[in-house]
Amino acid sequence: MDQKVRVFYISAVCTTATAMCTLEKRGNIFYLTLTGDDEHRLNPTLISSIRSALAEAGSQSVPGSVLITTAQGKFFSNGFDLKWAQKAGSDSMARLEHMVELFKPVVADLISLPMPTIAAVTGHAAAAGFILAMSHDYVLMRRDRGVMYMSELDIGMTLPDYFTALIRSKIGSDSARRGLVLRAAKIKAEEAVEMGIVDSAHDNGEEAVEAAVRLGEQLSKRKWDGAVYGELRKSLHPETCGVLGLVNKEVLPSRL
Length: 256
Description:
Elements: E1 5-13, E2 18-26, E3 29-34, H1 44-59, E4 66-71, E5 75-77, H2 82-86, H3 92-112, E6 117-121, E7 124-126, H4 128-134, E8 138-142, E9 148-149, H5 152-155, H6 161-170, H7 174-182, H8 189-194, E10 200-202, H9 205-220, H10 226-236, H11 238-244
Parallel strand pairs: 3-4, 4-6, 5-7, 6-8, 7-9, 8-10
Antiparallel strand pairs: 1-2, 2-3
Helix pairs in contact: 1-3, 6-11
Enzyme class: isomerase
InterPro entries: ClpP/crotonase-like_dom_sf, Enoyl-CoA_hydra/iso
GO molecular function, one term: delta(3)-delta(2)-enoyl-CoA isomerase activity
């Protein structure tokens, strides 16, 4: 592997805590890591940081580029920052709706990113954090700690349309979707594999990341054209792309 390392740090501070992610490039693999507070709750600051990292990776994409997303601490992401919304008092619902709209382009960015994407879920992934993980092409999860959880039923909130479209697109089994959404089940790694929600389960967080790196290296060797890869991904998720406002573009080989 190319040992040259380029590191990009995107960070910012919001009213609740430091929300940050880092983007590191090793060879052709980009590593997007959620850092900052342990729960990695998605507020406008962190959402903006993630979008900046994805834009940086996309702008430097070359044939063979791959993105791996992971997180430090107990959580992959615990969803939207409800405490930040509650600080607005009577305007708390407006803040929540604002986060829902701000997060939508993150899903669009991942669905259209010109490279394979892998989520190494090293902790709990709840609500919008679950959607963040599922927006990747491959999802690898640790089995010793952490659950997949859609909390909307428990907190009394319906799903945004792009959440629903992505869940229908990514999870083929009606019983799996029912358990996730209509039972608000907290799903551990082995069960998530059986339900077709994640691709593989690993003994701990470190092994999940190592497996993601191995997969990333395998994919990188194929040297696929990023524009073609992104368009083919979009073609597999027409409902999601329609809700996100993504339009398919024809890409033809420069020569046959």
